[in-house]
Predict the structure.
Amino acid sequence: MKILKEKNIESILEQIKAGNLPVSEAMEQLKDLPFKELGYAKIDHHREIRNGYPEVILCEGKELEHIVGIVEHMLETGNNIFLTRASREVYEALEKITSDLEYHPIPRIIVVKKREVEKTESVILVATGGTADIKVAEEAALTAEILGNTVERLYDVGVAGIHRLLKNTDKLQQANVIIAVAGMEGALPSVIGGLVDKPVIAVPTSVGYGANFQGLSALLTMLNSCASGIGVVNIDNGFGGGYLAGTINRQIEKARRAES
């Protein structure tokens, strides 16, 4: 694995071996190292050390050859690789360099699976206002799952038929973090936030008729929610919602393990 051949890492390991460098200090030094320079991209191989998760590839806006080049180099680490907003064209191009691919066409996510990830005991619940929000919701749910979280789904429980949500209050109460995905006027997170004592991550979608301004109406509703404990990510940003939920859930897991 190329990233382990860096001279500075060898030096750190030698210092640890000689007893001249505490492991905790060595970890602090390793947090800044290294990245792979490709010219068109700088691959951050040590993001997992700093942030807990490896670097994620956003495919939207990138040239196909650049995506393939980035994945080729990331394969050297032996880690799982996670690509968002990926087209079938990207998937077919990557099939030529690796067979360990999973493609999820609804959220447009590709996973190169090299190792199993242990799942949390703590649960993230992903809820949607309507069926039209599932594309964004699945991006959130799969992001959280890929990053090692146990995820449950509760779809089409919007305020137009609020009895559908209220019938599932047990699921709301059992989750540790809730991602509420909604378009139109975006009221779902406020309702959920008024029912639970846990973090609610609101994800506005661009679903709706003309005056929703491509999701701006839902975004503004969520930002102005009267319910407490709600955080809001950008329009259609299922990835951001899933990533944030996973970060919160990971802290819950750490606390649980520390108590046991």
